[in-house]
Amino acid sequence: MPLAGGVAGPASAYTAKDHHFSPGKRIEKQIVLINNTRQPQSFTAAWTATVGGEEVDRGQAQGSLAVSEIRFIPFQVIAPAEPAGGKAEGQLTLTATIGEARHQDTFAFRVFGADQPSEGEIALVDPSGLTGKMLVNLGYQRRFPPPGRWHRLTSGKRSAESPSAFRP
Fold this sequence. Notes:
This protein is mainly beta. It has two domains: about 5-110, Immunoglobulin-like (Sandwich); about 120-165, no CATH class. Helix content is about 5%, strand content about 50%. The protein contains one helix and eleven strands. The chain has one helix at about 130-135, and strands spanning about 5-10, 20, 25-35, 40-50, 55-65, 70-80, 85-100, 100-110, 120-125, 140-145, 155. The strands form three sheets. Strands 2-8-7-4-5 form a five-stranded mixed sheet, with no helix packed on it. Strands 1-3-6 form a three-stranded antiparallel sheet, with no helix packed on it. Strand 9 (about 120-125), helix 1 (about 130-135) and strand 10 form a beta-alpha-beta unit. The longest helix has 8 residues, at about 130-135. The mean pLDDT is about 85.
C-alpha cells in the first residue's frame, strides 16, 4: 500500500492496545501517516474523541510527507469523569488525506468510573495476609466463620503453599 494512515499507541509503545481508562487518565496515541511513493505528498489529518456519544476533544494537522516518510503525530485526550461503578464507551476517529487518498481509522476504548465500595463478609484463607488487606480496602470485613457456614470463601495469595490453612 503506497499511502496509509491510522491510529497507534504512544511513542513509548506504539503497538500498545490499551482500551480501558480511568477518569482523569491521559490517553496517549499517535497518528501514523505513511508515504511509500516516489513523490512527496501533502496531508491533512483530523481526529475526534468521543465518550458516551459526546465529543471530548479534537485536533488536526497538515503538512507534507517526503518520499518514503513515516510520520508519527502524537496527541492526547484526558478521560472525562464517569460516576463510580459506571462505564462509558469511547472512540477515537481519524480522517486523513494523503495526496488524493483518503483514510479513516477508529480506536474503541472504555472509561470506567472508580470502583464502588463493596460490603459483606468473606471467609478467607490467607496465610500471607495480603489478600485480606486488599479486601478490607475494597470495603469487605474479614470474618472467620466456622466451616459449613461460609457464604463466600476466598483463598488468598500463597494459600496453596500452606495446605493446612484449609483444614478446619
